[in-house]
Amino acid sequence: MDLDTLVGAKLALGFPGTDIHDDTVTCLQETRAQSLVVFSRNFSSPEHFYQLIQRLTQAVGRRLLVMVDHEGGRVIRLSGGMTRFPDAATVGRTQQAADVERQGRVEAQELARLGVRVNLAPCVDVIEPGCDPVIGDRSYGSDPERVSQLAVARIRGLQAGGVAACAKHFPGLGAVPRDPHQLLPTIGLDWPAMERSHLKPFAAAIEAEVAMIMSSHVCYPGLGEAPDLPATFSPRLIRELLRKRMRFPGLIVTDDLEMGALSPLGTMGERAVRATEAGHDLLLICSNLEAAHQAATALREAYRNGRLSRTELEESATRVAHVREKFLG
Q: What is the structure's pLDDT at 131?
């Protein structure tokens, strides 16, 4: 496989509007992106959305792995014609694992019918008092055993229905003091505190063979990292902890690289390269097509000049191909 195609396997791109535009098609063709991440801005009706995905697929000449945040509660991007499940906090207080597994199966059926094959859920963060409401009701609760149980049920329901699940936000966002969509936050918990609570649901998700895990744009100095280095750019947390120590074999995906937390930390090209150095397989760039071009260009150059490993790129592409084969067919 040529370098451009291998780099394209690493990219999941967002696009504007509910119609096909030339710049969207051109970006997908030139970056060779294999995945799309969709939002409410792309959705007007179930029928129109399905046709939009089909037309984009035809325009670029390859099948696209389509992903969406479909958590329930306030985080639902595709609303019309979809079952509206309550937020995770309500589910955590009122429902049992069997109910949550049924939720996952219903979601899988409805998403797959629209051409969506990845649900960027569940949120497995263990909530702590005083955290920023960016997580809040998106968490199943403050008990790591309960969060683990319900997260595993949701993962099993989704993936049994043919839609990949994604546990997020590694290594745990439940104690975040401010919203990383805007500013770079810090969680100061040490290893015993993280292992006692926040890492447990991720370990359970890995045991349940979750297809993807998403990292967080948060700094964890209590885990031995620099105070200004988010998990997104941390080989210690992504490559060493998640991939090697926790033995996660699936896709490791970034949160949106356009988020405000990362804006002081380099150009989009540099962010893409640093996230790849940390060990991510898939990079989310959720709205800016020019940023997607910058990321693809920087990645190609980093592989050509040896900053990034071609062998690791091929390994990432194999993991992406496995998810595509399993859930896209």
A: 82
